[in-house]
Amino acid sequence: MSGSLNSMYQQLILEHAKHPNGKTELTENLPHDASSYQKNPTCGDEVTLWLTSKLDDAGELVICEIHWDGQGCSISQASLSVMTELLEGKRFSQADEISEVFLELMNSKGKGIAPEAEDELGDAAAFVGVSVFPARIKCALLGWSALKDATLKSKSNNAATVKATAGSISDHC
Ligand code: ZN
Fold first, then answer.
1. How far away, in angstroms, is 110 Cα from ligand 1 center?
2. Which one of 30, 40, 102, 167 is CB 3.0 to 4.6 Å from 45, fit for a cystine?
3. pTM of the full structure
4. What's the rounded Cα separation, in Å, for the pair 34 and 148?
5. Average pLDDT by stretches of 10, the chain with 173 residues
6. How far, in Å, from the CA of 142 to the mean position of ligand 1?
C-alpha cells in the first residue's frame, strides 16, 4: 500500500471516530427489536447496539436503523460508524454478505482483497491497514459482532412479532 493511501485511510478512520454515525446517548426508550452488548477485553472497547428492522415487500428482513453507544479506541468507534453508514437500509442477507467481505479484509494481513469486493465496503475498506495488527482486528470487529448478534436475535423472533414491530417503527425506516 502506498504511503499516501495509508494516511488517507488513517484520516478517514479518525474522522469517523470523531463524528460517529449512529452513536447516541439517548438510550432510554430507544425503539428497537433486538440489542446486543459486546466487549473486547484486550483493549477495553465496549458497545451496546440497538437494531430496528422491518419486513420489506418481498418478506425479507431489512435493517432500518442502527443505534449504538460505546467507548473505546478510535478503531472500534470508527468501525461502528462506518458499519452503521454502510448497512442501514440493507437486507439482513446483504448485511451478512458485506460482513463476510469485511471479515475477509480483516483476515488479509494487510494485503487487502479483490478490488470489486473492496468496493462493496465503502469507507470500511479503510480498515485494511488494521488487518496487519492481530490485536487491533478485534477492535475493528466489535461493532460487526454486535450487529450479527442483534440480527440473529431479531430473526429468531417469530414472524408475527416482527411484523407487529415493523408496523410500529415504519416511520423510522
Ligand atoms: Zn480497541
1. 18
2. 40
3. 0.89
4. 11
5. 77 96 88 94 97 92 96 97 98 97 97 95 96 95 98 77 51 58
6. 8
